[in-house]
Amino acid sequence: MKKTKLWHVSSLPTEDLPDKRTIKGKQKTQLSMIHIQPVGYPLRLAVEEKNLEVTTDNPRLFEAYAKEQWAGFQVNEGDFLFDQFMFPDFAFEVKTCEPKKGGVIGVQTEIILDSRPKKTPYIHHEIPKVDFDEIIGHQQAKEKCKIITNYLKDPDCFSEWAPRSVLFYGVPGTGKTMTARALASETNSSIFAISSTELIGIHVGDASRRISNLFKEARTNAPCIIFLDELDAIGLDRSFQNIRGDVSEVVTALLQQMDGITVNKGVVTIGSTNAPKLLDRAIRSRFEDEIEFKLPTLEDRIKILEMYIGKLPLPIDVNIQKLAVATEDFSGRDLKEKLLKSALHQTLVKSADRITSKQIYETLSLIKKENTHETLRKIFS
Ligand SMILES: Nc1ncnc2c1ncn2[C@@H]1O[C@H](COP(=O)(O)OP(=O)(O)OP(=O)(O)O)[C@@H](O)[C@H]1O
Ligand SMILES: [Mg+2]
């Protein structure tokens, strides 16, 4: 791409603008405003990170820089402008401009760079709504969530006593993710829900950059929640460095971001793991609270079964009390997904119009054979 001649903004002529793209002899209207959005390079190597972002710390300085290279360019809404100096061929899309067609960039043109961070592919903002009433048990977690809710609704009210971070740990399927979702629904906050394995990239430095991007994006969207699922993937004890070469680097990046206490105002980090013992000590100690998610008690299992049976699309013949007794060591997920859902599907396969207790106990005996929770609990507790 050819370079344009450098023009100093202060010396730009307002009337006769220098331009290779304007049509000679035609009247040129100067744009009063142009709003551009960074869109990236026209090409990239397939192995590269997608989310290259550019931004500016000083919009006035950017405007002067932009005019130096684009003064005299005739632009229409939807056109692309290519950077020619710092990031040659990096493109900006003209989102809006005044007038919409045929105007020329000149001294009077206000150039607005839309540098709001784009949504990063590994950060999931959209989360289905969950109500706290749907979570059976976990009183301690609910109490902590209440405090966090108050904080997120008014981040100034706690000053240095603000809740910052909490670690949810326990066997799979006990409601850790569900609780984080309920918190986000209750506070109407953005939730940055990330499976930590997604933060590990393929290049050296990927993970630390992603972690830093994540916290940066969260700070921009505060008040909000960062939910780091499978935290052990990025918070692994540094003694595992020999097995996975990036462990130290990733842990350091996470520690740095979690320590950004003053700047992380209005951001609450929730970590979730099945294996707290694998966590790096320094990471673990950053969490001000640790809440264990245990398997549901008999009473909880009755409530979980009642709740999900009430939502089944077919009637069911079962004694809930007896079923709850028979499902010791079942998590909420086991009860809902493995037992009730499987029994429902089997019933539908048979084209029957009700789930019989025989069907339920058949499904139950199949699950019991492969239920490994007891083993998992022994390993991790
Ligand atoms: N205490 C509970 N009350 C009601 N439903 C529950 C409960 N625990 C689990 N469930 C059901 O099981 C599903 C899975 O739970 P969730 O994903 O929150 O488990 P988790 O603890 O995050 O598991 P993992 O450690 O595997 O990530 C929930 O969406 C919900 O349907
Ligand atoms: Mg989970």
Radius of gyration: 28 Å
Gross morphology is elongated
How many beta-strand runs? 12
The ordered string of helix (H) and strand (E) elements is: EEHEEEEEHEHEHHEHEHEHHHHH
Output the strand order for the largest sheet: 9-10-11-8-12
Query: What percent strand?
Result: 15-25%
Tally of helical segments: 12
- What proportion of the residues is helical, as a percent range? 25-40%
Gross CATH architecture of the largest domain: 3-Layer(aba) Sandwich
CATH topology of the largest domain: Rossmann fold
List the SSEs and their pairings:
Blueprint: E1 29-30, E2 33-40, H1 59-70, E3 74-75, E4 80-82, E5 91-98, E6 103-104, E7 110-113, H2 139-153, E8 165-170, H3 176-187, E9 190-195, H4 196-199, H5 206-220, E10 224-229, H6 247-259, E11 267-273, H7 281-286, E12 289-293, H8 298-311, H9 320-326, H10 332-349, H11 357-370, H12 373-380
Parallel strand pairs: 1-6, 2-7, 8-11, 8-12, 9-10, 10-11
Antiparallel strand pairs: 2-5, 3-6, 4-5
Helix pairs in contact: 2-3, 5-6, 8-9, 8-10, 10-11
This protein binds adenosine-5'-triphosphate (ATP) and magnesium ion (MG).
Magnesium ion (MG) is lined by residues 176-177, 229, 272.
Overview of the molecule:
- With 381 residues, the protein is an alpha/beta fold.
- The protein folds into three domains: 9-113, Vcp-like ATPase, Chain A, domain 2, CATH 3.10.330.10; 132-293, P-loop containing nucleotide triphosphate hydrolases (Rossmann fold); 298-380, Helicase, Ruva Protein, domain 3 (Orthogonal Bundle).
- Helices cover 36% and strands 15% of the residues.
- The protein is built from twelve helices and twelve strands.
- A five-stranded parallel sheet has the order 9-10-11-8-12, sandwiched between helices. The protein has a four-stranded mixed sheet with strand order 4-5-2-7, covered by helices on one side.
- Helix 6 (247-259) links the parallel strand 10 (224-229) and strand 11 (267-273).
- Helix 10 (332-349) packs across helix 11 (357-370).
- 33% of the residues are buried.
- Residues 1-23 and 375-381 have low confidence and may be disordered.
- Bound molecules: adenosine-5'-triphosphate and magnesium ion.
- Magnesium ion is lined by residues 176-177, 229, 272.
